[in-house]
Design goal:
Order of helices and strands: HHHEEEEHEEHH
Number of strands: 6
CATH architecture: Alpha-Beta Complex
Distance between the termini: 57 Å
Shape: globular
Strand order of the largest sheet: 1-2-3-4-6-5
Length: about 170
């Protein structure tokens, strides 16, 4: 690329030469590839995991990936499971803590009575999103979290896909 004046934007020049924007679009398959961690590296949620937290995360991931038309993405470096492009669980396992957020339209009130749960930030708690955090000292209630995962999937998935997953 030819040198540009200080403060000038090289993007229009790139667009002229290649006919493409400098930034890939979300619908572009190349863009989807760029959002995933490179092969041979680990996402933030895959590094330095204590045993029971890693086991709980693996159980949630395996159960979530078994639902119809689920994909995995890593926005902000955290594991996210999506159905038809919409996230139904966000997970992170770093610094000795497992954190997750799910949408619970039916059981949010019960969930928020648990000592490890709180409304999800950024105003999502108003829509039924609940976040839970566990440390290595905590007992992780995997069966309860699997039920929350199922409820979150059913809340986010289109009706045809949600009907394939039993209540």
């Amino acid at each position: 690329m030819p040198p540009t004046k200080r403060g000038s934007n090289p993007v229009p020049e790139l667009r002229k030469r290649t006919g493409k924007s400098a930034r890939p679009r979300k619908s572009d398959p190349e863009s989807a590839r760029l959002r995933k961690p490179p092969p041979g590296t680990k996402a933030k949620s895959e590094s330095a995991k204590p045993g029971k937290l890693a086991a709980a995360e693996a159980a949630l991931r395996a159960a979530g990936m078994a639902y119809p038309e689920v994909t995995e993405d890593f926005p902000w470096g955290h594991r996210t499971l999506k159905v038809k492009g919409k996230a139904f669980i966000f997970m992170s396992n770093e610094d000795g803590a497992l954190g997750l957020s799910v949408k619970l339209p039916a059981s949010a009130d019960f969930a928020l009575m648990q000592p490890f749960a709180k409304p999800t930030g950024y105003g999502l708690g108003k829509s039924g999103w609940v976040s839970a955090t566990f440390t290595t000292k905590d007992a992780v209630p995997v069966p309860l979290l699997l039920a929350w995962l199922r409820e979150s999937y059913r809340a986010i998935a289109p009706k045809k896909l949600a009907s394939l997953v039993p209540r």
